[in-house]
Amino acid sequence: MAAIAHNGQLRKDGRTPYVSHVIRVCLIARQLFQVGDEKTLIAAVLHDVIEDTTIDFDDIEAKFGKVVAEWVAALSKDKRLPEDHREAVYIEKLRSSPCPVQLIKLADILDNHLDSLRMPSSQRETVVRRTTAYLDALADSPFDEVKRAYRLVRKLLEESSRESEAVVGGE
């Protein structure tokens, strides 16, 4: 469903098929965060379909059930709202989301950050600002799995940023 829904879409670099992002988010959740729950991994692969394609809640619910559809909806921004308000609503939604949603968002944050390291600095600023806001929203998660994943993502973001700065400084 995700591959069909994202068919023809590209990442911000204009070359990478968008579906590679959602697959990487699923792999980060599975391999890095040790998520084994099938519904969580399905939601990870589908996490952008409501927000970025013509697939809607009902389509996901019909194929994967209500829980997966609710998690994907929780990971979707309401694009009908003005951007500042949309981001504020989304951040509040993240804070109160169930554990699987928060884990998927952390995987999404990590993948988006790693992608941003290859972007021009002008584009990277938005990713960094949003990454910080989303991480702040998840900093006090009550879920142990999220706390572990959060610490790991923070560490990896810091390491990759240092390495990126070293490469830029050494050019």
Give the topology.
Blueprint: H1 2-5, H2 19-32, H3 38-46, H4 49-52, H5 57-64, H6 66-74, H7 83-95, H8 99-116, H9 121-138, H10 144-170
Helix pairs in contact: 2-3, 2-8, 3-6, 3-8, 5-6, 7-9, 8-9, 8-10
Q: Would you give an account of this structure?
A:
The protein is mainly α and 171 residues long. The protein has one domain (2-166): Hypothetical protein af1432, CATH 1.10.3210.10. It has helices at residues 2-5, 19-32, 38-46, 49-52, 57-64, 66-74, 83-95, 99-116, 121-138, 144-170. Helix 3 (38-46) crosses helix 6 (66-74), helix 5 (57-64) packs antiparallel against helix 6 and helix 8 runs antiparallel to helix 9 (121-138). The longest helix is centred in the C-terminal third of the chain and has 27 residues, at 144-170.
Question: Outline of this structure?
Answer:
By secondary structure, this protein is mostly helical. 73% of the residues lie in helices and 0% in strands.
Q: Which residue ranges are poorly predicted, with pLDDT under 50 across at least 5 consecutive positions?
A: none
What proportion of the residues form beta strands (DSSP E)?
under 5%
Main pleated-sheet profile: none
Total tally of structural domains: 1
Helical residues, percent = over 70%
State the CATH architecture: Orthogonal Bundle
CATH class: Mainly Alpha
CATH topology: Hypothetical protein af1432
N-to-C series of helices and strands: HHHHHHHHHH
Radius of gyration: 16 Å
- By helix and strand content, what is the structural category? mainly alpha
Q: Tell me how many strands there are.
A: 0
The CATH superfamily turns out to be Hypothetical protein af1432
Helix run count: 10
The rounded distance between the terminal residues' Cα atoms is: 42 Å
**Global morphology:** globular
**What's the overall average pLDDT, rounded?**
92
